Amino acid sequence: MTAPLSTPLPTAPQLGRTECDAAPVLRERGQREVFCGLTGIIWLHRKIQDAFFLVVGSRTCAHLLQSAAGVMVFAEPRFATAIIEERDLAGMADCNDELDRIVDQMLLRRPDIKLLFLVGSCPSEVIKLDLSRAAARLSVKHGGTTRILNYSGSGIETTFTEGEDACLAAMVPGLAADASAKPSLMIVGALPDVVEDQFLRLFDALGIGPVHTLPARRAGAMPPVGPNTRFLLAQPFLGETARALEDRGATRLDALFPFGAEGTTDWLHAAAQAFGVDAMQFRRTIAPGRERAKRALAHVRPVLEGRRISFLPDSQLEIPLARFLATELGMIPVEVGTPYLHRRHLARELALLPAATRLSEGQDVDRQLDRVRADRPDLTVCGLGLANPLEAEGLTTKWAIELVFSPVHGFDQAGDLADLFARPLRRRDLLRV
Ligand code: SF4
Q1: What is the Å distance from ligand 1's center to 60 Cα?
Q2: Is the per-residue pLDDT at 361 higher than 80?
Q3: Is 66 in the pocket of ligand 1 (CB under 6 A)?
Q4: Disulfide: which of 53, 272, 335, 389 matches 41 by Cβ 3.0-4.6 Å?
């Protein structure tokens, strides 16, 4: 194993009753075309400002992170890859000794790191490097200053957004116990700070508190959890995290995800109900934001209304986004594919999808592409690798990854979210003219 590539590589830094309920789900197991869970490091390292993500992986992993992060050079990067070399793979070197040496060196040089994640990859899994034992061992040595946790971002175990789920779930057992008799609210999922601040202001105006976020912006500010914790998932891909929080006694508030005017209203309303906020006060508090969102959506609606859209499985945001596009913008979902379908968390979303929507779970990329070719939707949301071939066949595409990297939650981002779908259609319309 070689030392972290730190400078200048930027590697451092089930259902309510409606229509879609009863619809069959096509389950596919075949070749996949999705990023692995390491991708989540790109947004997680920005969110938790004193955390460091050390991927124990190969040059491919380092390369993925570097290209996903874009060409950025950090003075003090907050993610890196400890490269497993061939001799490690051949069992000729003791990877644990080398990992300890790398972590010791890094923490000596970077006392600002308060939370270190050892992130597993395909190579570390193949050689069965036990990163949970490594994290426990290193915690004994460095636990006074730095918490050390581990999770897997490998392509064998995770797709794209599951890396965030694995990371947050790894934090839950170590959260402080909240024994308070007063209920508290926890927003779960890494949101851009600006969006998180908007939600915190709204909850404050509603008189709901205390409100915590998981993850917090600092390792030392992670939320406490206990039987009086009520939590709202901000993202639909956090199944393991939700389960871990429920194991700690917390209760999930069932709601639509906060996309669009209606999704955001429902999400806020679930908290308002749980905290006994008066109906009048709720309506009055959210009215300005809701109106802004509706106005912004009305502006984009003419481009999207009546257009047919297919989603290839990618980010797990597909079902809430399809609901938003169908109910608030008049789009017609043809096929909505998702890597995993968490029926309980998505029950309300599924209930609002039009009855004719074809749902698919998992992926068999060739068969799915054949269906896209047969359906010829106006817009196909897919991964980077599939967009170019589809465009070459005259289909209009949208990169799914943009939907994860852009601020899209809440009232004030509703128009921008709609616009992400409208832009490729406008461009295509112009080219046709
Ligand atoms: Fe590739 Fe696996 Fe590394 Fe992800 S974890 S970059 S899929 S080798």
Answers
A1: 6
A2: yes
A3: no
A4: 53
